[in-house]
Amino acid sequence: GNSVTQMEGPVTLSEEAFLTINCTYTATGYPSLFWYVQYPGEGLQLLLKATKADDKGSNKGFEATYRKETTSFHLEKGSVQVSDSAVYFCALNTGRRALTFGSGTRLQVQP
Amino acid sequence: GAVVSQHPSRVICKSGTSVKIECRSLDFQATTMFWYRQFPKQSLMLMATSNEGSKATYEQGVEKDKFLINHASLTLSTLTVTSAHPEDSSFYICSALGEDRGRLFFGSGTQLSVL
Question: Please, which residues have CB within 8 angstroms of residue B85's CB and are 6 or more apart in sequence?
Fold first, then answer.
């Protein structure tokens, strides 16, 4: 079956630090990969996605590259801000309309 | 942008009671909604797929008689946890499939605590 594994949080960084949140997956077929973000009190929002190998998704300074050889989709940002504090979910979709999620990683950015 | 409203955000109830969680798509029609559950430090797990006007499709291991799903209109799906027990304490979140390119929109979740 499909599964997504993300690094456990919380991840605590100082403002302007470099961020990496690891995500690896197991899937049948060729999944599309996603990062969702949940800010306090809000629903999950799509942050970025990639639909095939070597694609790079990017949004709001965040990037993730679909690495088929390592089955990974690590989330990165060069300089985090306090406003990036949230929970980040890695997810995949293999054609079913429902997503398979990881457990989420809480990011706390300190001023 | 499309918004999904989930209510309540937090509920505490006694063991044996039933709890209803609502999920509404505010500015679009959602023929399909999904219900997820998350236990602490675990993944969001799909519980069931709710289709307007028809019976919900439940994932393996999810008791349909315990988790009643009703999707009577194109903008509302409800999840009722019947005869709740402490092991049902969890974070429940809904998502709705948008009309535009099939994007998913999520509610903000409901934290259920059963005493």
Answer: B15, B16, B114
